[in-house]
Amino acid sequence: MKRKPISPKLLIRHKWKTKIFALLLVGFCFSTFLLMEAQYSRIGASSIFPLFVQKPKIAFLFLARNRLPLDLVWDEFFQGENENRFSIYVHSRPGFLLNRLTARSNYFLNRQINNSIQIYWGEASMIQAEIILLQHALMDPSNERFAFLSDSCIPLYNFSYTYDYIMSTSTSFVDSFADTKEGRYNPKMDPVIPVNHWRKGSQWVILTRKHAEMIVKDDVVFPMFQQHCQRKSLPEFWRDRPVPVDNSKEHNCIPDEHYVATFLAHKGLEGEITRRSLTHTSWDISSKQGRERQGWHPVTYKLADATPMLVQSIKDIDNIYYETEYRREWCTSKGKPSPCFLFARKFTRPAAMRLLNMSALGVSKDTRSYTFIRSVHVARGSGRKKQKKSLLICFEFVKLAKTHDIRIFS
Predict the structure, then answer these.
(1) Where does it reside (predicted)?
(2) pLDDT, mean of residues 145-157
(3) Is 90 exceeded by the pLDDT of residue 408?
(4) What sign has the CA pseudo-torsion 35, 41, 47, 51?
(5) Predicted structure pTM score
């Protein structure tokens, strides 16, 4: 039997159906390609950019005389960490620059603030320098914690442990206790600062952003310290002169040891702080010093003192006793017993470098960053494979259409 010839109308209709089907298939292939590209982009973006945007940072605020003698120790501490979890600010003497000649670590290059002041021990200028550091650090909205450190401080643990420890609580770490023995309180501060708000503690505090912002805006407590905490003839300045018989009318309240703790007590915020410092200091109570000089200065650890046993003895401290309050502070982190200190002072450069070379500080590089980079590459590779597969399907279709003389875009 002879086949009936296909009418031109049916042939045209068939061709149009084929073209429509081909166009839909090409559209599907193109859409699949775009979706795969978007998915691949999200793999890279979701793995990288949230670290820069969402991670809260710790601002490390260094108070230095000139350069930072232990910058190589801190360089090892920060190694392997992207700067999305920390920032660095240094207050040094006016005019001093941290450049290639004065800084041996890239982390500290040009990190000095540009409006530093001259600091005088025993005066409110120390507090002013701390406030200036806070002002600079608060300009970065990602900074959520503000840790004050001296130029003789060393880290005791690696960055990841330190970061998790500090960020695990919503409180500030402020050494704070009632001061009833030193006689540093000036009655002239009353009634602005009543004696029951007077506190003593270490200046090496770690503040939340809320408390840092309040200190920067303080126009009540700080002026009292400026006005009534004047420098007097402390034992280290007596030299060959006789000790005054009666210096009770002079008041040197050592502002840096009192201001932050007193300010927070004055504002009724002691419930928002963990009442201890994370920086270990050993005070000199040697009988070799005269009675008036005992306890004025922290012990300085030199080369001969720098041993793994010393570091371990500091790490093993798990409680602090406050004699004036008959209070023992047991140290915890995330609700579990933990070491009390993350940092320690005062270490000379030879002592700190010896500990670093002996791997006694536990500040070795964190390999997680390398694992992270590798995982991103793996994700990218997987995305590329899926893209390639989608493209091959589309190319095969185009090849098939060409074989059957299907003109898609005519």
Answers:
(1) Membrane
(2) 97
(3) no
(4) negative
(5) 0.73
CA distance 362 to 161: 10
The first and second tokens of residue 256, run together, are: 């840096």
Residue 110 exposure: Cα atoms within 13 Å on the Cβ side: 0
Give the pLDDT confidence score for residue 325 in this predicted structure. 83
d(C-alpha 291, C-alpha 293), whole Å: 5
Which whole number is the average pLDDT over 315-333?
A: 90
285 pLDDT higher than 90:
no
b/e 101-139 (16+ beta carbons within 10 angstroms → b): ebbebebbbebbbeebeebeebbbbbbbbbbbbbebbbe
Q: Are 119 and 323 in contact (CB under 8 A)?
A: no
Could you tell me the two tokens for 134?
């806070």
279-281 and 343-345 beta bridge pairing: parallel
Q: Positive or negative CA dihedral for 158, 159, 160, 165? A: positive
Nearest to 92 by CA among 123, 128, 109, 67: 67
- The predicted pLDDT at position 68 comes to 95
> How many Å apart are CA 139 and CA 141, to the nearest integer?
6
